[in-house]
Amino acid sequence: MYVVLLGLPGAGKGTQAALLKDETGLPHVTTGELFRENIRGGTDLGKQAQPFVESGRLVPDEITIGMLLDRISQPDCAGGCMLDGFPRSLEQARALDEALAGKGKRIDRTIYISVATDELVCRLSGRWSCPNCGAVYNETSRPPRTPGICDNCGSRLEQRKDDRPEAVRTRLEVNLKNLEPLLDYYRTQGKLCEASGEGPVEEVARAVRACLEGER
Ligand code: AP5
Ligand code: MG
């Protein structure tokens, strides 16, 4: 099963994909994390992507589409995956459909996690992430057991550079512009399901699960 999670920055795409990874068995593929790994590793791709990622602009398609298609052609994604952060434009959605069709596969479901913009700004300013294992926390809604330390691996937590207020504004602007056309694209294909991303994480997970199981 190939699933796309759509949602504005801070909607909870990463939180939900991580939560549902074990029960669905679907690998979590996130373009934002792939870029951050490359930036940390100092690769050529990371160097090209860094100014875009840190300022909150979209990384150009020439870099992003190839990276994503390469990732989903790896063996762990042969039976499907949960895509988080891709596609973000119609061009990317079409490239993904084309690549999957070439392998006799397709996107099965697209889940839009909807959250009001004010709540997103608040969530992003309180987010702390683990640079080692990728776990995501929030000062208010999901604090780590020891402040500043990852519950899973004990690493020191960091705030993402693109969670600074100017970058958050840019990310919201860019993503708001692209969201409606993408929702329309998947709605027209009859694949779109909307899950409210507000309320406790477990409640959101129930709504996402219902979409996955085709109950909504
Ligand atoms: P990416 O890393 O994907 O960033 P994003 O889309 O801005 O999304 P986030 O990761 O910020 O939010 P999320 O929805 O995963 O929320 P989370 O679960 O963390 O992309 C980064 C950058 O890479 C882009 O800006 C761009 O430059 C580049 N890029 C990536 N993909 C690209 C593409 N396809 N094309 C071009 N460029 C691309 O939750 C947020 C916070 O809220 C956390 O603190 C969490 O604990 C908390 N939280 C979660 N759920 C709840 C809840 N229900 N209630 C209260 N708090 C909650
Ligand atoms: Mg994320």
Question: What secondary-structure arrangement, pairings included, does this model have?
Answer:
Elements: E1 2-6, H1 13-24, E2 28-30, H2 31-41, H3 44-55, H4 61-72, E3 81-84, H5 90-101, E4 109-114, H6 117-125, E5 127-129, E6 136-138, H7 165-188, E7 192-196, H8 201-212
Parallel strand pairs: 1-3, 1-4, 2-3, 4-7
Antiparallel strand pairs: 5-6
Helix pairs in contact: 1-8, 2-3
What features would you describe in this structure?
By secondary structure, the chain is α/β, with parallel strands linked by helices. It has a single domain (2-120, 168-212), classed as P-loop containing nucleotide triphosphate hydrolases (Rossmann fold), CATH 3.40.50. It has 8 helices and 7 strands, in the order E-H-E-H-H-H-E-H-E-H-E-E-H-E-H. The strands form 2 sheets. It has a 5-stranded parallel sheet with strand order 2-3-1-4-7, with helices on both faces. A two-stranded antiparallel sheet has the order 5-6. A hairpin with a 6-residue loop joins strand 5 (127-129) and strand 6 (136-138). The mean pLDDT is 95. Bound molecules: BIS(adenosine)-5'-pentaphosphate and magnesium ion.
Give descriptors for this structure:
single chain, 216 residues, alpha/beta, Rossmann fold, 5-stranded parallel sheet, two-stranded antiparallel sheet, 8 helices, 7 strands, binds BIS(adenosine)-5'-pentaphosphate, binds magnesium ion
